Amino acid sequence: MDQSHQGQLAVQFVTDTEFTAALGAWTHRPGPRYARLAEAAGDAIAQGLLPAGTRLPTERSLAQQLQVSRGTIVAAYAELADRGLVARRQGSGTTVTAPGRRTTGRHLRNQGFDRQISGPPVPIDLSMAAPVYDAIVADLGADTTAVLAAGAPVHGYAPLGLPALREGIADRLTARGVPTTAAQILVTAGAQGALQLIIAAFVRAGDHVVVENPTYPGALELLSRSGAALDGIPRDHAGPRPGLFRRALEAGDTALALLVPTCHNPTGTTMSEQRRHEVLAAVRDHDALLVEDLTMADMSFSGVAPADLVALAPDRVIALGSFSKILWGGLRTGWIRADPATILRLGRLRTAQDMGSGQLDQAACLAALPRLDEIIAARRRMARERHDVLRQALAEQLPDWEVQRCEGGYSLWIRLPRANAAQVVAAALQHGVAIAGGGIGGLDDSNLDHVRVCFTLEPDVLVEAASRLRRAWEQVCAGGETAPALAAI
Fold this sequence. Notes:
Helix content is 42%, strand content 16%. By secondary structure, it is α/β, with parallel strands linked by helices.
């Protein structure tokens, strides 16, 4: 955007193309066309994509750009003015006057959870970013004798976690550059349980929370249920855009910021080293608490990633992780790394909630620790191979789909030629394939032209899935009927 100064107001001129990009898939919103446009522009203002002082395109030029009537633009701008978001002056155009606000009061529901509870079985499920049951899982096992030998009390209640497992997790974090003791570890019911505890402890209704847009949809639902006021920071290939991240922290007291820097869910990208330092500088400057989700961190295809945020700023970062992406999702065992006082606080909350995680699951994870590096290497090889199989199959079957570069994890982040992901998800289900629509991980409609497709199943199944997705795409393009879709996690 070009800038000029008019009095004390710094005016930024946004082009028609830039403004259109900020709107996202506005035509897919409900209501009259002018209302859809106004809602999309309002969201762009809220996210900081159109900051105060931005001069919007003229009615005539924008009408030509969007291929709508000038009256639609006039009505949309009038709606924005009525909401106090813009000022309209004869001869001066339309200028954004409101600072970015926060998204609150909207219930962000992860429909993938609904499908797990009540949805019908799907022949090919490419919606789950976790390894399936295989020989590695079959070799895991534990009994009550192993639990007691690992330090569990005879009554079986250990809300902070199995002592030997806490020691093992601490040792692994120390080895990856995060000096840690067992007193800094709390064992949880997976990463989802870790998030739930952290949010329950640190977030109250109306609190300001900063997240990436898109991000893990399970976190969004937990934050939504807490009543948090969410700021969604758009991402590029290197991570959340640093200027917008800093501006979000400047907006007011921030309860916490949640980031997935390594093998990001859902995009599969890894935050650059420079971006990590920029993010941490903003966190320090604004005295904010940062939560780092390391759930996928071991699944970098190269086996190499920049230093964890918690390694760079252990006093500012609470880290969490899980064994589910390496071992199996059925082992509901995750962890939180924080200072000992915070661990005791979270442990007290955990005790009141459910008395702690199951000991047999923890013992199985503990038994896997001596060979966990070997298991991780095997999972990486599997993921890379199946990533290549699915990517090649999609390139042959659906060459118009734009597959984003994946640096690790278990899923491809794919941009469709049109913003019709919900229709594609629904059609895919009719053809026996479950995938996730991009909209479920965001605070707005900016990812309605994306789907997430996981590659944890056998290679021949992935090839068959690509063929079915092609038929589903053809159905959507031909205007075929699709049933309502339940998206996935």
